[in-house]
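Tokens for chain A. Residues wanted.
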């Protein structure tokens, strides 16, 4: 094994204390990121107005769909092989850059052909905006993938710093490019590229400094392994994105930009709650992938904690939504009802998302793919029925129903694979409370500079 495989990946002397500390750091950084991104979403909504917000959402969907279609799940494969210690960081990053080069060329080429099509979708924004969305594909892909690999290398503090930096830069760039420079939708898209580019450079610097990253030519064998894993998760990744964005895609074809803007803002705010399972997933994936048994009990504990924490946060958000929109975004008031309809689905989805790193980390990505595909089928069927009746509220109900269906599938699959009963998985225990309290204490000690826990 190469020297850089070991850099930054030494096993902790006290795994339990290190795990609690890492979880607390990740959770705190994600909560801070959520707050900053909410501020950015509010500013973006105010600067662009509903129609401009709708055009921006359509361009983002366009770039995201092309990325998922053309990159063949290689980002998930990279994270799996880094987290399971089967690749060195240099092998993984070199392979990822090569995939980014080839797959971006395919995505941009396909996008340039599609933009020329006389479809209603491409009338929702200017051609320049769609070209900017295409230009951002490789930068955003590499930024997201390399930052997400830091937790797999046990660099949780740096992961937290970079995610916080990204949220700060994005908020600043929204103000600079959209408001100060009056760039409108184009300015918002340029802001995304500038943010991702700067964070990508910072991530490469951290990997070089802390993990011994060097450039090597990727071997064909490593490329095949990443591609083989990615393809097995590929259809699930496509289904997941389409399930998440199918409402926006359908609205882009049938609704005016302002209506798209209302729905996209509500959806963007609702999914911010997923930073909670995102923080736990960040810690879980590396531990599950490095353990042959998969650590099912730890996964179940994270599911229970997420269910309680997200439930409380969503309850507060539901109560605050109406007065907040009335004061800060009065032109978006119809989005409040959409936000309320999305919240139940986000609650169950947030808890069930913790099963995904278990299946991916135990080399069963097909289960997660099947769950997403089932949710997508539910979403599409209900959209055809509910959208003509209730417009954006019908779209929100379809999304919530799809989340519930896919979450139930994941819960049943986890029961069968792990052997843990439903009561063992879902019933909150005193030990869960103790772990949560210790995580808060660990973070507090670290903030005060008093942490002496071994890493």
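Reply:
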């Amino acid at each position: 094994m190469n020297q850089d495989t070991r850099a930054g990946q030494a096993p902790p002397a006290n795994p339990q204390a290190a795990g609690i500390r890492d979880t607390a750091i990740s959770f705190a950084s994600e909560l801070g990121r959520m707050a900053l991104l909410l501020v950015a979403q509010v500013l973006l909504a105010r600067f662009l107005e509903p129609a401009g917000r709708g055009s921006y959402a359509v361009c983002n969907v366009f770039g995201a769909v092309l990325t998922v279609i053309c990159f063949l799940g290689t980002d998930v494969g990279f994270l799996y092989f880094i987290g399971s210690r089967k690749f060195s960081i240099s092998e993984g990053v070199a392979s990822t850059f090569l995939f980014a080069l080839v797959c971006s060329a395919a995505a941009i080429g396909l996008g340039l052909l599609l933009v020329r099509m006389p479809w209603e979708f491409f009338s929702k924004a200017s051609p320049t905006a769609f070209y900017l969305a295409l230009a951002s594909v490789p930068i955003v892909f590499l930024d997201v993938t390399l930052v997400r690999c830091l937790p797999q290398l046990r660099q949780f503090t740096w992961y937290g710093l970079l995610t916080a930096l990204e949220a700060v830069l994005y908020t600043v760039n929204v103000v600079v490019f959209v408001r100060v420079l009056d760039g409108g939708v184009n300015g918002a898209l340029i802001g995304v590229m500038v943010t991702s580019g700067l964070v990508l450079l910072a991530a490469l610097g951290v990997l070089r400094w802390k993990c011994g990253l060097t450039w090597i030519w990727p071997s064909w064998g490593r490329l095949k392994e990443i591609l083989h894993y990615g393809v097995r998760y590929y259809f699930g990744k496509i289904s997941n994105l389409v399930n998440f964005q199918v409402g926006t895609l359908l609205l882009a074809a049938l609704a005016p930009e302002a209506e798209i803007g209302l729905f996209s803002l509500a959806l963007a705010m609702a999914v911010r709650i997923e930073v909670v399972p995102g923080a736990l997933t960040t810690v879980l994936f590396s531990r599950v992938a490095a353990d042959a048994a998969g650590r099912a009990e730890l996964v179940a504990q994270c599911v229970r904690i997420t269910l309680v924490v997200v439930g409380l946060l969503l309850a507060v958000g539901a109560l605050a939504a109406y007065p907040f929109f009335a004061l800060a975004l009065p032109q978006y008031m119809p989005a409040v009802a959409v936000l309320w309809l999305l919240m139940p689905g986000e609650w169950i989805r947030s808890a069930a998302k913790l099963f995904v790193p278990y299946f991916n980390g135990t080399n069963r990505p097909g289960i997660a793919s099947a769950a997403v595909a089932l949710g997508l089928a539910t979403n599409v069927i209900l959209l055809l029925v509910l959208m003509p009746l209730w417009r954006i509220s019908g779209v929100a109900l379809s999304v919530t129903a799809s989340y519930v269906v896919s979450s139930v599938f994941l819960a049943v699959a986890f029961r069968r694979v792990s052997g843990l009963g439903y009561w063992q998985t879902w019933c909150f225990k005193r030990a869960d409370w103790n772990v949560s309290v210790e995580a808060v204490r660990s973070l507090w000690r670290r903030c005060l500079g008093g942490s002496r826990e071994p890493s």
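The mean pLDDT is 84. The CA atoms of residues 95 and 223 lie 6 Å apart.
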